[in-house]
Structure formats: C-alpha cells, structure tokens
Fold:
Amino acid sequence: MFHRLPRLSLFPLLALVIAHAIPAAAQPFEGRLVLKLDNGLFQQMKTGDGKSATPKPLDLYATCESGKWTNVWGFARTFNVSIHLGDAVAGESSGDVIKLKVGLDVAPDNWIRGGRAEYDLDLKRSGETITGTFSGTFQPDGAQPRPVTGTVQGYTLPPNPVRPGFVPVQPGEHPRLLLRKADLPALRQRAQTPFGKAIIDVLRNSHDPVALGFMYQLTGDKTLAEKAWPETVKVMNNRDGGAFALGRFWGYRTNVVANTYDLCYDAWTADQKEVVENYLDEILDLCLNRKHRVGTVNWTPGSNYTVVIHGGNGVA
Structure:
C-alpha cells in the first residue's frame, strides 16, 4: 500500500543549492604587512663616466585597519640609517590580492641625502606569505627622478589586538600616558595596602617630577604639581649630551618632561604648559631633523642609542 508524501516547499532546498553555488564575497585584508622591495632605492655614485645608480633594498611596513591604510614607514640599512615615513595614497584588497600605492619621504642621515619615493605594489597572499612586484620612482634631493622596479617578498601579521572594553583617548584628555582618570579609583585602593603605603611614602618625599605628578593625580593635592614644576625646569635646562655625548639622554629627558606635563596638565598654568610645549617641539625637531646636533649616536633603528631617543620622543 502506497502512502502519499506530504507536499514540501522547495524554497529551502533551492536556497541551499544557490548558497553553495554562489562563491562567498572575498574579504578585504585586515592586518599588517612586512615587505622587502629588492630594488626600492638607489645610491648615485660618481664614476669616471659620470654617475651610476646602485640599487638598495627597502624594508616597508604598512597597516590596514577597518579598510584604512595607516602606519606606512620604511627602513633601508644599506642605504642610510634613517627611518622613512610615508602614507598610502590608495589601497584596495580582495581575497588574496592587494594593490597599494605608497608615497615615502626618504629621510637623510649625516652621510646620505634623502628624497621622495613613490611605489605601486601588486601583491598576492598565500597564507601568511606575500609575493609580488612593484614599480615606481625615486627622486633624490636635488636630482631627477629615476624609475625603480623589482620584486616584493614579505609576510602578514594579524591586526594589533585591542583590549576588551578599551575606550580610545579623547581629544584633549589628560592624563593619558602612564594612566588615565578611569584608572585612579583602583590605584587609590591599591595605595591603601601595606605595599602601596610603602611606595606612597617614597614617592611623596621624592624630587622626581614624574613621581610628584603621579602623587598629584592620586591625591588631588596641587602643591605636589607645583613642586614638580621646578624639577621639570631642571630637566629642560640640562642641555648636555650625557656621558660620552652619546645623545641617549635626550630620550630620557623628553620622556620625563612629557609624562610630568601630562600628569600636571590640569594644575599648571597656560604659560608653564607653553614652556614645556616649546621645549618638546625644539628637542623633537633636533632629534628628527638635525641628528648631527644630538651627539655621536648610532642611528640604526633598534640600537641601544636610538631606541632610547625614539622611545622618549614617541611618548612626547
């Protein structure tokens, strides 16, 4: 005996078939690129016949977050020892294909002049590996632009992680470096523990401007911020290059001055803050654009000289 099957709608079945038949839309790239352009730059060398261009590799870094390309910079150790800042003029990605147009201000150092470089990058991802080609121009200062082309090798890194619940710093917010206003209730609770009380006793009697600024934030006592001011002035007035004139002390000083400024921002007068801002403008310009005036610094990024200077200046 045959039983009649109930009539079923074919719509869910058709929807399932169609969903499997249509490929999913390619996802744009999100993360960081670490690339090496094999002939990204060149040095012009005088020869008996005029000038020859010696190719130099370029390490290039870029980040894509929420579809926006940022943090473009480069480094070419066999070209010079400066860090080269840039921007992504245009960029698009689909699936494993990335196309990026980059402009780079090639900074000079004490020996090699800089210039301007522009590149069109055609890249392909395979897992974390990047391969591709580039074409563009490099124009040394005072010279004509010349074409540069070559291959690209590199890899990807995931986006920088963001702590759950993190609230971005708001324009004009202070303090924002060592701590933020929202951190103060928990810090005040910790200050009531035996260990916290011992630390507070040391900080309260300190002549360190950052310690005094921290105590001002913790207690709200403006006299502590007032005590931090002359100590900050002492740091700003110290203009020597430190032991052996190696220049690292500029990083320590800008770190101290910037953190104290941040902690005491609400307590200091407009004139006091302007003095600090003018000091930081001067010293950061010195370290970035007049490196020969800083001291006998090894400017290779990551050296035990440069990391201190850039670290302090980065905080400032």
Q: What stands out?
A: Strands lie at 31-47, 50-65, 68-75, 83-94, 97-106, 115-126, 129-140, 146-157. Helices lie at 11-21, 184-190, 194-204, 209-219, 222-237, 249-263, 270-289, 306-315. The radius of gyration is 28 Å.
